[in-house]
Amino acid sequence: MTKTSRTVLWIFCSLVAAFVALPVLIVVPISFGETRLLQFPPQGFSLQWYENFFTSPQWLRATGNSLLIGALVALTSAVIGTLVSFAIVRGRSKGGPAVTGLMTLPLVVPNVIFGTALYGIFLQLGLTGTVLGFVIAHTVLAVPYVVVNVTSSLRRLDSRLEIASASLGATPLKTFARVTLPLILPGALAGGLFAFMISFDEVVVALFLGGAGLETLPLKMWSSVQFQIDATIAAVSTLLIAVTTLIVLLYAWLQAFLRRKATQ
User: Fold this and answer.
1) Fewer CB within 10 Å: N-end or C-end of the chain?
2) pLDDT tens sequence across 15-63
3) Residue 147 neighbours by CB under 8 Å, 6+ apart
4) CB under 8 Å, gap of 24 or more: what pairs does 119-125 form?
5) Contact criterion met (CB below 8 Å) for 43 and 34
6) What is the pLDDT of residues 52-73, one digit of tens each?
7) Peptide bond into 106 cis (omega under 30)
8) Neighbouring-strand partners of residue 26
């Protein structure tokens, strides 16, 4: 690729990134405005909307619910996704491709359809409006991301290391715990971060499963936009952008770390 081609490609990618990011980033200056209305450019400078968020029991309760559910989803998704990936890559069954296709179904099925189906089932089981119901639903949505990450790590892992461990007398469980798991741990952690982000930002399924007793942060934002609009929603959106950006940066760092480990 010539220098001119690289320059044109860089300019094009920068324009696309600006087109995607700028409409979202507009909420950042709006969140520091003095007026209650959402207007750009903002008038004056004030931190009252952040103060309103951090002093509101409803907003803090919804944030706590999202953090709790996201942490549980990240943990369960990392465990389930790692075990499924190990079965797909190291298993002797010929059904690996079928299992892979089944695990990726939540990526292609619209969340509205998924939420409708879960609502009908969870309503009968009494799981609507509960932490357990949210964790199960979000885990189903998040596990494919863990499977993709861990499967990629396992395929790059030198299987001779596991063979050497077995030849020295280690049981399959000990080989997995002391050889395989430490080497694929960056992939599992990256998948867990992705699972947390999927759960923390998810709103469509939450609309079906949420109730008066349990409200997540995206669900609280949705209801706030419906019934009352003030700049607090912009402050919350800015905080979400910051959290999401941090998670993406951590994910990129873990992926880079994983690639360095694979080349050593």
Assistant:
1) C
2) 887 777 777 777 777 777 777 666 677 777 777 778 878 888 888 888 8
3) 81, 84, 85, 88, 100, 103, 104, 191
4) 119/208, 119/209, 122/209
5) yes
6) 788 888 888 888 888 899 899 9
7) no
8) none
